[in-house]
């Protein structure tokens, strides 16, 4: 109920999606084996759009400034998403244009998504 229309998670139903709440919610759902209850593709879309083009860092919420602490909260979401999408053979991972790179020892997690032909994000 706390997953918002944006795809992330808020502190309670009806609130805006937030990086810290999203990380904790997703981690809890993985531990409880309840990830089938969420819209994973919408979550991935929200998460990749939290990294800002100009600064390169992450924002915790839509239309907010980049903040260094979100490198942990938002960056930590990607290995969790990778973990829950891989076993399901999600449509997004069956797309040959999508590349998921993960190097846990380097702390590097990237999801490269195709840009629609009509423009950029």
Please tell me about this protein's structure.
32% of the residues lie in helices and 8% in strands. It is built from 5 helices and 2 strands, in the order H-H-H-H-H-E-E. The chain has a two-stranded antiparallel ribbon. The mean pLDDT is 74.
How are the SSEs placed, and which strands pair?
Blueprint: H1 19-31, H2 40-48, H3 70-73, H4 77-85, H5 91-94, E1 99-103, E2 108-112
Antiparallel strand pairs: 1-2
Helix pairs in contact: 1-4, 2-4
- The main sheet orders its strands as 1-2
Q: Spans with pLDDT under 50 lasting ≥5 residues? A: none
How large is the count of helical segments? 5
Number of strands: 2
Summarize the helix and strand pattern as letters.
HHHHHEE
Terminal CA distance? 27 Å
Oligomer: single chain
| Structural classification | alpha+beta
What share of residues is helical?
A: 25-40%
Report the principal-axis shape.
Answer: globular
Largest sheet: 2 strands, antiparallel
Q: What does the average pLDDT come to? A: 74
Short description:
The protein is α+β, with helices and mostly antiparallel strands and 121 residues long. The protein contains five helices and two strands.
